[in-house]
Amino acid sequence: MSDDIKHEPSTLTFNPLDPEEFRRQGYKVIDFLTEYYKSIEKYPVRSQVEPGYLQKRLPKLAPDDPESIETILKDIHNHIIPGISHWQSPNHYAYYPCSTSIAGVLGETLAAGISVVGFNWISSPAATELESIVMDWLANMLNLPKSFTFSEGQGGGGVMMGTTCEALIAIITTARDRVLNQIGCDNINKLVIYGSDQTHSSCFKSAKIAGISPNNFRSVKTTRAHAFALQPEALRAAIHSDVKKGLIPLFLCANVGTTSTSAVDPIAKLGEVAKEYNMWVHVDAAYAGNICICPEFRHVINGIESMDSFSFNAHKWFLAALDCCCVWVKDSSVLTRTLSMNPEYLKNKATESQQVVDYKDWQIALSRRFRSLKMWLVVRSYGINYLRSFLRGHVDMAAYFEEMVVMDRRFEIVVPRNFALVCFRLFPVAVISRHQKFLEEESLNELNAELLESINSAGRIYMTHTLVEGIFVLRFAVGSTLTQPHHVSYAWREIQDHTDRILARKIQSWGC
Ligand SMILES: Cc1ncc(COP(=O)(O)O)c(C=O)c1O
After folding, report:
1. Any atom of ligand 1 within 6 Å of the Cβ of 362
2. Is the CB of 163 under 6 A from ligand 1?
3. Which residues make Cβ contacts (< 8 Å) with residue 326, sequence separation at least 6?
4. What is the pLDDT of residues 391-417, one digit of tens each?
């Protein structure tokens, strides 16, 4: 040490990354999770706690001194697990799945362990290069046109983000700038965003963040008669009406697998309409995009070649664990023109060479997770064939459930099933004919809401609902990694039991 430096720091005795301690605690955590998966079916699927339950159980202040992993894991078991709705339970049929796997969890662990922040190529070349390779692999598995891949070398390619909402913010902002660069920023209030009334709320939220006036969001009406798919003529009419008012059609979010009912918009035809107005078309296939790796389902994205961007959530149904939204664009230069920032502290020779991808310029945030490591593990660990059979297995189980619903004449299927989501409701015709009361939609809705709450509060299975054309719909989404056919039979028996009890109570209360 040089003579004129007076201060000599003392060696840190605290090492929060001590390798042997990492191994010891790591095994404890894996053991904990192993036991969790083995006993997951004994927990109520939907958490049964009351709001504020945890405040009452945990200390008001953080500890001054270290606590052992054993103590912390015990508290997770005693206090956190009761407040968990068990998404990985085989009896979880709520929302859409958030499937995980050994490869998904260990991929997350590896990424967290290696812990890099690959915002540009030089900050971790493998993180960037692996992401581009895996995105091309996935594009190939989905049979996306080559124009969406890096391998074609024409500016197309893919990026991994956290969520669809993040993807839509990046994409709508890009589409906005593409137009404003031509017509001037003063015209931002003329830009219009289109989707159907089934489009996920994240599209309009993203448009709001991108500065598009909420008066200019068009949720074009869909109907049960068309299985809630956006009709090209309805889109055209909405666009015409806006153009007549001097507004400028900017962006269409086309849906492949809507959140409520898995409706599939006819994207090729919608694309033709949108292209007449030079609009950007994004295909949101957050859920159903996963199953497009199966050739027999790939037709739902026929026409993708004329779209500008496409995304699906691999954390929904691809064994990937939260989070990973895979997004492809045909022309990355428009994306990077909007999202690129080059402050001095990030400048480097690789970027200047223009031979590398700097993913910070493809997304909203600067820092980013090493998601491709996880996706690489998932695809390699299971292979395309196993992934396909996993997804097909869920569709089969959903078809089996649907058959049981159809056979019970107290129920009806509300919209035809496309994938592994069954949309149904209690529609007890025999009871209706005797009790005028149930003829009203509102009463039927109340009955179905009561049935759902009765099922979910019992905790043996968990489903959620939606409302379409004023109909309260029960959603049964098969997709949990651990679900097997006997779980589906069990779920159906559970639904029937609750139905028997509720209908018996109703009939008794009417005195017949
Ligand atoms: C069709 C569709 N789009 C978008 C989203 C929103 O996804 P994220 O939470 O990744 O933003 C969902 C969520 O379920 C969805 O089903």
Report:
1. no
2. yes
3. 135, 138, 158, 159, 160, 289, 311, 312, 313, 314, 375
4. 999 999 999 999 999 999 999 999 999
